[in-house]
Amino acid sequence: MRGTLLVALAIVVPPAFATGPGDAPPFDAATQARRLAELRRGGFPLLDLHVHLKGGLTLEQALAKSRESGMRFGIAVNCGVGFPVQDDAGALAFLESMKGQPVLLAMQAEGREWVTTFSPRTRARFDYVFTDAMTFTDARGRRTRLWIADEVEVAEAQAFMEMLVGKIEGVLQEPIDVYVNATFQPAVLAADYDRLWTDTRMQRVIDAAVKNGVAIEISARYRIPSERFVLKAKATGVR
Questions:
Q1: pTM for the whole structure
Q2: Which CATH architecture has domain 15-234?
Q3: Contact 51, 98 (CB under 8 A)
Q4: Parallel, antiparallel, or unpaired for β 128-131 and 178-179?
Q5: Which helix (H) or strand (E) covers residue 36, if one does?
Q6: pLDDT in tens, 173-184
Q7: Is residue 197 a contact partner of residue 239, using CB atoms and an 8 Å limit?
Q8: Cβ neighbours of 5 (radius 10 Å)
Q9: Where are the domains of the chain?
Q10: For 2-29, what is each residue's pLDDT tens digit?
């Protein structure tokens, strides 16, 4: 699916996730329903391409929400070392289990070794593939997962950000359709989001996305990227 138009929208924002850059109160139900209806009437494709059947969410509940909102869902499965799907056989079993369901099917590629863990033929069976830069190997050869505080070492914030942006540029060269959790930072740096995500760093990520034909997710969970990033990305031609 790489090279086609993918629009990642996340309009339904649970109040518990309404934190982070661009903070704003979530829509009430009536406002949300009205805005969704306006978009449908305007012919705008409503898609949420990052839905997981976990945390208590069942396929039946997801389908009911899809029908209620008029938004088509992409159901994603975590694929990589230490995740529910760790090889081609597991990926194919997931696809078979979802056969005939009225949803898109996505591979969420985890860790940088995913490219060799799953064959191109298996990856191509999914409607699209997405990943993030939240898992990588640092300069000292240690596996780093940005959401786990004990695995993140920030000796100096600016140097860490330069390293992170370089990792993101590498990730955007992987065979993916969508880059998600685009400007995620470890908790120790989150308060300095606007200062650390400089125009130059944002532009490096945006340019890499354009060069490699990768769309960028707008995440309702983390409320990232910032509005400033989104407007720069749109002006540069990112999908």
A1: 0.84
A2: Alpha-Beta Barrel (3.20)
A3: no
A4: parallel
A5: helix 29-41
A6: 999 999 999 999
A7: no
A8: 8
A9: 15-234
A10: 433 344 444 333 333 333 444 455 667 7
